[in-house]
């Protein structure tokens, strides 16, 4: 039988820790600063001390799932490439967690974990095939085929953010140009906004009133400005959503999923980002899969650490 599991989801700034039942119920949730500059060994030590305190308080977990951004070597429990956590690649995370906590440990890409969390807790495993896209600083993705997370040959499946949508386009954080992330990641969205405002002092009056210093602009403020009728903010979302529609239509046509779920901070833009995606999907003449897919936004911002726990719980009872 699957047991209660711990989940850890680490980003560049914060790590989230959870204790999750096999059905996906969150029994405990905490946040801790990542302090990436102190290195991976110090991070593992600190997180394990927190989880040992949970164990001492009666939370008896049978497994640990660890989700992290980057190219994860799922088999060996290490990071191959970690753009957001410099110096963390190559560290034996799975073995280090296992040694300190004595729990079987699964290491997973953070987007895969978040998509699995949403698949189990929000979609209740109902669709057989699902595509999930995480929209934050970076753009990640996860693919569920026949009710199982599809990892691919090297565990690198689902890197939707680094599929190319424009030849020789905008620079991406991965070092390439024209990736979907370069337009739909937070930094790409803000780049679009600044460009539309630059040299046009009469445009974007609501946005400028809301954010006098454009350096402080965020996707959340862009949504507020669009809601308040700002034409520039609305155009930023139109461009972002159209680019997402282009990138995601390519993936939908390959996978033919029942459901497509947007996750992460930027997905809270809701209809501002969903409407242009739908328009692109509907505009394609050869588009059975694009018209069939159910498009929506996930509600749970903690899906990453919940999904990591669920994957660990399921792996430990196999
Ligand atoms: Zn890229």
Instruction: Give the full name of the CATH homologous superfamily of the largest domain.
Output: ATPase, nucleotide binding domain
How do the strands line up in the largest sheet? Answer: 3-2-1-4-7
- Unreliable parts: none
Helical residue percent band: 25-40%
Please tell me the CATH architecture of the largest domain by its name.
Answer: 2-Layer Sandwich
CATH class designation of the largest domain: Alpha Beta
* Whole-number total of structural domains: 2
Tally the helices: what do you get? 11
Any idea of the CATH topology of the largest domain?
Answer: Nucleotidyltransferase, domain 5
Number of strands: 12
End-to-end distance: 9 Å
Shape: globular
Give the rounded overall mean pLDDT: 94
| Helix and strand composition category | alpha/beta
Can you describe what's shown?
This protein is α/β, with parallel strands linked by helices and 318 residues long. It folds into 2 domains: 5-119, 2-Layer Sandwich (Nucleotidyltransferase, domain 5); 126-299, Nucleotidyltransferase, domain 5. Helices cover 40% and strands 20% of the residues. The protein contains 11 helices and 12 strands. The protein has helices spanning 40-56, 93-101, 110-121, 181-184, 186-197, 205-210, 219-227, 231-255, 271-283, 288-292, 303-316; strands spanning 5-10, 14-20, 26-33, 63-68, 71-73, 78-81, 105-109, 130-135, 139-145, 148-149, 259-263, 294-297. It has a 5-stranded mixed β-sheet. A hairpin with a 2-residue loop joins β9 (139-145) and β10. α3 (110-121) crosses α11, α5 (186-197) runs antiparallel to α8 and α7 packs across α8 (231-255). The longest helix has 25 residues, at 231-255. The radius of gyration is 20 Å and the shape is globular. The chain starts with a strand and ends with a helix. The mean pLDDT is 94. Bound molecules: zinc ion (ZN).
């Amino acid at each position: 039988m699957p047991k209660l599991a711990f989940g850890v989801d680490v980003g560049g700034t914060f790590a989230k820790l959870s204790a999750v039942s096999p059905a996906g119920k969150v029994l405990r949730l905490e946040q801790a600063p990542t302090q990436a500059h102190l290195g991976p060994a110090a991070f593992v030590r600190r997180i394990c001390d927190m989880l040992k305190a949970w164990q001492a308080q009666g939370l008896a977990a049978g497994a640990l799932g660890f989700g992290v951004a980057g190219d994860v070597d799922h088999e060996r429990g290490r990071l191959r490439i970690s753009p957001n956590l410099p110096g963390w690649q190559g560290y034996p995370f799975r073995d280090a967690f296992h040694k300190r906590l004595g729990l079987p440990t699964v290491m997973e890409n953070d987007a895969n974990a978040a998509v699995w969390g949403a698949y189990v807790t929000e979609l209740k495993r109902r669709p057989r095939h699902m595509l999930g896209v995480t929209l934050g600083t970076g753009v990640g993705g996860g693919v569920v085929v026949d009710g199982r997370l599809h990892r691919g040959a090297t565990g690198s499946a689902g890197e939707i953010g680094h599929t190319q949508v424009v030849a020789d386009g905008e620079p991406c954080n991965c070092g390439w140009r024209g990736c979907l992330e370069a337009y739909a990641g937070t930094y790409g969205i803000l780049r679009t906004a600044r460009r539309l405002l630059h040299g046009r002092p009469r445009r974007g009056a609501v946005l400028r009133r809301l954010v006098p210093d454009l350096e402080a602009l965020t996707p959340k403020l862009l949504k507020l400005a669009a809601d308040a009728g700002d034409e520039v903010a609305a155009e930023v979302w139109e461009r972002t959503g159209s680019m997402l529609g282009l990138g995601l239509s390519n993936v939908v046509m390959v996978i033919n999923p029942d459901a497509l779920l947007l996750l992460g901070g930027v997905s809270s833009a809701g209809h501002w980002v969903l409407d242009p995606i739908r328009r692109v999907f509907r505009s394609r003449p050869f588009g059975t899969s694009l018209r069939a897919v159910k498009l929506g936004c996930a509600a749970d911002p903690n899906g990453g650490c919940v999904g990591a726990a669920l994957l660990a719980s399921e792996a430990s009872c196999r």
